[in-house]
């Protein structure tokens, strides 16, 4: 199964080497280090991802 990986628009060219990319799957959200796209990925449920984003915004 493949996905399109997205990086924050805030990454830009300043500090762009320290980015987390997000990919969507039907049952989960995947996170990976943009510097190591073939490395490990973290899969979490959509509900847990929504809670993570809410917490990060606080």
Q: Into which percentage range does the β-strand content fall? A: 25-35%
Helix content percent band = 10-25%
Question: How much is the radius of gyration in Å?
Answer: 12 Å
Question: Termini separation (Å)?
Answer: 33 Å
Count of the separate structural domains? 1
In the predicted model, the low-confidence regions spanning at least 5 consecutive residues are: none
Strand order of the largest sheet: 1-2-3-4
Structure, explained:
This protein has 1 helix and 4 strands. The chain is an alpha+beta fold and 58 residues long. The protein has one domain (5-9, 18-57). Strands 1-2-3-4 form a 4-stranded antiparallel beta sheet. Strand 3 (29-33) and strand 4 (42-44) form a beta hairpin.
Key attributes of the depicted protein:
58 residues, alpha+beta, four-stranded antiparallel beta sheet
